[in-house]
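Much of our argument rests on the idea that a fold can be written as discrete symbols. This step matters because it turns folding into a mapping between discrete strings. The record that follows shows the chain in one-letter code together with its fold in token form.
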Amino acid sequence: MEFPQRTLDGMISRVQAHGVGAARKANAARCVLAVMACAVMAGCVPGQTASLNVRAAETNPDYVHLVPITPQVIAQDDAGNSAGAIPPALLAYQPQAYQIGPGDTLYITVWNHPELTSPAGNQNEVAANGRVVQADGSIYYPFAGKVQAAGKTIEQLREVLASKLSTYIKKPEVDVSVLSYDSQRVVLQGAFTKTGPQPITGVPLTLGEAMGKAIVDDPNANLSDVVLTRDGHAYHLDIDRLEHDGHAKEIYLKGGDRIFLPYNDHQQVYVMGEVNRPRVVRFSSADISLTEAIGAAGGLNQITSKGKIYVIRNTSHPGQAHATVYELDAKSAVALALGSQFEVQPGDVVFASAAGITRWNRFLSQLLPLTNALNSTAAAQYYIQRNP
């Protein structure tokens, strides 16, 4: 929009004819006209009419698709994001009785024969009388000689020793226990407080128990994509959902398993606009609700926000630019209930739009310094013309 040049020229000529007082009046008139002009053009100022621009973009479905958040949309998302079942291969494994392996330390008791049970002397610690299973899986025991222990259960090894000792001892009573489990381990890596190996013992170890012992670094962990590697195959598990459903305890671990818990560097959404603390919100689960994301940013600014919330989600494919924009009118209680059920995903941009009066006030705050500069320039021009 442009004002006729003759209008401005007439104002300047009146300033020159009637002095400083008239100049100030002319400058005031100039400022009023400028404000009116900018008010007419306010709809063209970038960033001031986000909701209108989003609505206009709906006419170009090849670029953006505007979707109001409704119970039907939430139900559709819930169906698409339902937790998958535990892979059958993991459920199929059920731990059996512990099998002794190389590196284990055994304590063998022959009742009523302390010279066999504690050859190092009773005064020594139990560990000093332990027998380590060698790399070839064998141990040496007096009167029994070299015995293959690896691959046998504790009960099987006890029977073998009792049979060999029966040649020298009448009805020997033999007991075998494991002092140190070192032959079978699982390794935990990633976003744990205590990384490293954990032994497989006579008590079956579940995935949930192993992660509990390692202590998850909650603020930095991504529980939605835990990788369990077994026998050369990697299984991706959403532990957050499995724990919520109580299924994590159904996965038993075996020696050689590797558990990797990734960090949540990419598990984040960007909350912008009229919120109290615009920020990047990181989370440990596969997704969080829209209400949780807004709450993590301090909630909506009750003074400046309009109540319209947009979730911009990149749904593009290679060679195709496309985005879906979800819209929520948070001014109603029903909408707030929908927001607590709508799940935002990693990479989403959450934008809370500004109220109309907020946009106008910000526009004026940018305009007033300009009008003051025009006023000063006109006054300086008048004095220069009066005092050549």
User: Anything to note?
Assistant: The domain at 50-81+287-354 is CATH 3.10.560.10 (Outer membrane lipoprotein wza fold like).
